[in-house]
Amino acid sequence: MIASWRGLAAAAAIAVVLAVSVIVDVLRSEPGAVDRALVPGFDPARATELVWERAGQPAIRAVRTGERWELRAPGPIPADAGAIGEVLAALRGARWHRRGDAPPPHATLTVIAGTERHVLGIAAPIAGTEQTWIVCDARGLVVDGWVARALDRDRLSLQVRRPMAGAAGARSIAITGAITGAITGAVTGGGRVDLRIEGFPRRQVRPEPLLLAPEVAAALERALRDLAMVRVSDGPPAGHGLAIEIAGPAGTAVTVELGGACPGAPGLIAVSGTAGGGCVEPAAVAAVHAAVAALHQPPAAIVERRPVPLEPARVVLPDGATLSTSPLRIGDAAADVTRVAELLAALAAPAEVVARPTAPPTAQLTATDRAGAAIALDLFADRVLARRGEPVALRPAPGAWSLLVRPSRELRDLTLWVEEPTMITALVIDGVRYQRGPVIGAWDRHPAGRADAARVEALIAQLAAPRALGFAGGPLAAAHRVTLEVTPPAGSPIRHALELGAPRASGCPARTGGDTVVLPAAICSEVAALGR
What we know:
The protein has 532 residues and is of the alpha+beta class. It is 23% helix and 33% strand. The protein is elongated.
């Protein structure tokens, strides 16, 4: 029996030993986790320098300077932020698929990030696949083709290829120099150019002040935006035809010198400036020349035909009153939405271009937008207007002109006041007083007499928010005097007073405050009936 127990214990011990051996073997055979990042732990924010090298060519160095990257030797010039971003994103996100012996690289990229330094050799693509060999820190690695394309950069792909891409948003564009070719004769002075445009909407400052037609300014902006370098030049240009300066919205400036043969690239045109040098296609240069020549047409051909091509926040009218569009006010009174819309439409409607009158203007109108841009219009006796300082004038359509010179009072909201009818507690017509009773719809008459409650209630409904039909001219002979007494739930009582004249075919003249307006004739008729 004892022997049996001893045998069982020995067998158990052997089983435990065998189990431990199996576990150890399994652990030894299980491969460890492999980091397949091309550059393990790479942090783009710590990268300070990128250097590309190719046999027989100068090294290309991109260096971080504050918040931007610059290209050096030659330089410094701004690097294309998008291109650098693609390189850094590839270094951070790239993964390799397998290791092996890579062919010799045709280019190397050295990445410096703090105290770390990584050297990546870019080899040829693997035939028949979308994969490429990269030698990273002496290891041959197979990566996806997009990784190699993102990292394999020449100088042109790292430069700002469209130095004037922001022309449409520039605060100003200045162009001086000379244009050449078949369009030279379109520019006065034998092709000499001295042009400057500013602001929004685009205003020409030189050669003479003129608000530009939007299509003319857009053509110049488009031509400058599309001017793209297609090659890096082999040396400095021999000369240039145009000097262009674009001032950005934040005070930054881009300068470009355009013209002359591009060294090492027959048939291309040289370009240089703050974004570096390169070569551009002749067609792109011709587009710039054509857009510049178009701006040298007579003013009548390029002027903005809309008197005020902006959204006014404030308009000083010919009679001196000020219209505000938000909130909608004319002086200290509410303005009429429809009539203000008519005025703004008249200011924005295209007009006929005519010669500027020699006589002095008879009135002025000034419109200012929310950004502070202002357009001052001189108004002349023969229904012509001109923007201040411009050499030509505009003749609006007759209907538009009448809206521009309409008296400011006619822009007021013609609703005299707005009250809740049930808050009107008394109506006094001449010597007759109607007092609201304790029940809505009930009215008492003083001096004593029968009150037609339904008729009084109907008139109260009209007088709670009376809207004039327009303004009346001439003196008013008051036939009736009406007073409304309003008792709001809180606050002091309010009184509204009206003087009414004899009804006319057009309505009933009435005076409230200093204005004489025309009310619907039905109001006067009811007032006369209830005042007896």
